[in-house]
Amino acid sequence: MQSETYMEKSRLVQRSIMNTSNGTVQSGLDRGGGTDIPIVLVPWGACCFHCCMEVPTGSHVLWEKFDQAKDMGYGPGIKFCLPAWERISHVVSAQTISYSAPARGVPTADNILVDLNVVIQFTIPDKASAQLFVYKLGAKRLDALLAAACEEGVRALVYGSNHENVMDLASSSGSTAAIQASLTENLHKYGVTVRSMIITKTKLPTDLQTRLEKTTTMISEMENAEKQNGNDQLVVKNEGEVKLVEVEKDRDRRIQALEKDLVLLKTEAEEKVAAEEGRKNVLLENATAAQSRAALKNTHEQEMAEVQGKQFKAELVQSTTTRCAEMKVKADQDARTLISLAEAEYTVAESTAESLKEEGRAEEVAAEKLQEKRKYELMWDKLDILKDIAKTGRKVVTGERAESMMNELCNMKTAAPATMSRR
């Protein structure tokens, strides 16, 4: 389906600029996304002289001296103090320019009105071509010439084709070769070189486009349905053949597997029988050999046991006799030793008892003397206390305490003469 967006017609223009600096020139040649294409820039003139002038790069610079075209030989860069009669008259773009010249309502051979987008790419290759272009043609007349030539050539091309062939003109450079050759011949003398001319888009009327799209869609659907039907039949057939082949392969595979299993089972059975026979023979041989070894071992062990028993009996009798004699001698020695110790302990015990008796008698006498001494000392202590009391003055004591003191004094008076008599 063709796109619904179509280009607007381009317009070649000439602009004026304040100075010729690179920035100003680039800004002046920028089309800014619109339909105007600046191709020639005309700088403002000076009244006396140019204090400072920059010769731009990337463009064709045309000079004038006394209002006559002349190549001054100045290269790009800044020039100082140039007189007013030496000036840059035009700056021509050296880039390849894409010019859009759409054609609307162009009739075909079968009287169908179509719209086309045509793009022409051209350039001004050198300074001499730029001078021819500026002084013989100019931007405005080039715009009119391109529009007229493109319109005329495209209408003639489309009128000679029906609407089906017109749709094939898009993006085909061969279809516009004759128009491009005619433009090249007409514009070469003005310094313009046409690089290419191509029809980028074509558009039929909306209702016709819709019908064609529906027709194309139906045809495509029918073709797809036929292809799908053929594919389905082929798929079914192939699937049946594949399944049949798979069934046969599966049958053969199962037969082969069963045959292999049968052979394997027979082989395993024979191997098991042979293995059992061999194991039985080995076990029988091992049992016979083990029985013989056990009999020999028992006979040998019996003989060794008899010899060892006799030796052990003799050794046991001898060792027992020797131990009994040693124990008897030791017992006699221990008995004599214990008797001697007992007699000595008895003697010591008698001596100890006598000494303890003497000590007891001495302690009894000493205890009586010590008791009398303590009583005597206590009596004198009490007398000293009474003496101190008598010195300090009279004191009245009554009650149980007085009675106790009187009893003690009486006892002291009674005990004092006896003590003094003993002393």
UniProtKB/TrEMBL annotation:
Keywords: Coiled coil. Residues 255-286, 339-373 form a coiled coil. It comes from the Eukaryota. InterPro entries: Band7/mec-2_domain (IPR050710), Band_7 (IPR001107), Band_7/SPFH_dom_sf (IPR036013). Residues 69-226 form the Band domain. It holds the Pfam family Band_7. Transmembrane segments: none annotated. This is Band 7 domain-containing protein. It comes from Florenciella parvula.
